[in-house]
Amino acid sequence: MKQKDEKNQSQSDRALKIIPVTLLVFALCGLSFYLGGIFCSEKSLLEGKIVQELSKAVSSPEYSAENALQIKPVTFSECSIDYQDYTPCTDPRRWKKYGYRRLTFLERHCPPLYERKECLVPPPVGYKPPIRWPKSRQECWYRNVPYDWINKQKSNQNWLKKKGEKFLFPGGGTMFPKGVGAYVNLMQDLIPEMRDGTVRTAIDTGCGVASWGGDLLDRGILTLSLAPRDNHEAQVQFALERGIPAILGVISTQRLPFPSSSFDMAHCSRCLIPWTEFGGIYLLEVHRILRPGGFWVLSGPPINYEHRYQGWNTTIEEQRAALEKLQDLLTSMCFTVYATQDDIAVWQKSSDIGCYEKLTGPDVYPATCDDSIEQDAAWYTPLRPCVTSPRQKLKRSSVGSLPKWPQRLNIAPERISDVPGGSGNALKSDDSNWKVRAQHYKKILPAIGTDKIRNVMDMNTVYGGLAAALIDDPLWVMNVVSSYSANTLPVVFDRGLVGTYHDWCEAFSTYPRTYDLLHLDGLFAAESHRCHMKYVLLEMDRILRPEGHALIRESSYFMDAIETIAKGMRWNCHKEDTENSGENEKILVCQKTLWYASSTNSTR
């Protein structure tokens, strides 16, 4: 009995000793949560506000249609004709403010709020509605993209030729002056996966006038052409005028706005990117966005230098050394030579985890990125001098293990499990919903599905549902995922679609007049607390083609205010019910009018 009492006494003493420790642990945890709340990222705070705003818009009487947001009528003046090709975040007028090292001046540098334009960007003198697809792939109106410099400099390489009122695109390029068709035929011989649906998405860095991407469309490969803003060539503007997917961008000091493992293939045809400089950091970025098992294709220096070096104004020794340096760098990143012939060399990114495990030593360069570096972070994210290793848990996300196109469009990819609430059933439900919506859209906007609409942007997609629903129509969709929302863009790419990250508080990376249809779904309900509605709509006006359309699916609370601003931008709009005929949400169907700059226009 005494021993039992002593045992109980001992247990009580230990319990009394444990209680203060436990309290201390709880106190420390509480303090850490408190400090974490103070120092949490601005993005997390904003995401919390987004949820609150959405909740208000859906449930609060204050946000009902009866209490709809009202604003005073507004009109916008015309910008100067000097702003006909205005790209706010890549504006040549502001280049001198930024450094020239590594071409940082070509990256995104958006103007501060007090410098934002509140005027309508005019079309060039003599602008006409674009030639319709597929004829636009071969020709466009000269006055729509009036760049004489590129015509004079590149016509001998068959990039394009001016004939009368049009630019013609013979399909040539610096490395394929006799035509892109034969060039791609050889490439397909070297990469048979390009023929059977294994390769679906591609990126063309330094795209010229996007003839490579244009040719691949007929072969079932969706290519996103990438080039920086420039004063002379307007490569991206030519691509979009032709109806070929493209976006402004440059590999410099920041990551491209795509998640890791996005593309099945990357291509550079004499794109003038110094791949081996700065420790190969540009090639490391291509490695990041290229899917394991994906292909990197290079033509131009130093490939086939034995027969080409004299035309490159260099020596055979210099080119031999350059090729050896490039091969060593690619090998150090787990690339292997896949095929070479004539002017084309192909490397394949390894999906073998064993190769990447060898890159973890203290003296290895480049080493694999540590766990603190988020592979998909790509909105104003600095380039990292490290190799992104394939995620071991992903067994069916490499080239060759993904379902082939078009089956992959309708099969839930592995990375959907990374999305909160994401699952195969969620994707199936989302697709079913968008099929119904797309049918309704075609009723209220019959131009969808015709040659009147080619370039489409879904301004705040989730899984690319609208693009999937319209996949059989003669159009392509730029799927935009907000940098402040859940990261669903990997799912979009895994399905065989293309897109980009973006923050709609800023201007998009494209030229004016480049999209035929803009679609948004609840964008203002989600972002109006961060982004001024007026500036978002002015940006929509900038990138929308004259006579182009906008489908604005939004809470009824915002509808009248949006329509008021749209009227001030010279748009013609009317309201339509959604497919469910609900009162809390409506669709504003708008068309931008074609107008020309006034002779007295002086707005800057």
TrEMBL record:
InterPro entries: Put_SAM_MeTrfase (IPR004159), SAM-dependent_MTases_sf (IPR029063)
Enzymatic class: transferase
TM stretches of this protein: 21-39
EC number: 2.1.1.-
Taxonomic source organism: Gossypium armourianum
Subcellular location field: Endomembrane system; Membrane
Membrane topology, record value: Single-pass type II membrane protein
Domain of life: Eukaryota
Keywords linked to the UniProt accession: Glycoprotein, Membrane, Methyltransferase, Signal-anchor, Transferase, Transmembrane, Transmembrane helix
UniProt GO BP: methylation
Record protein name field: Methyltransferase
Keyword match 4Fe-4S: no
Annotated family: Belongs to the methyltransferase superfamily.
GO molecular function annotations of the record: methyltransferase activity
Gene Ontology terms: cellular component: endosome; membrane; trans-Golgi network
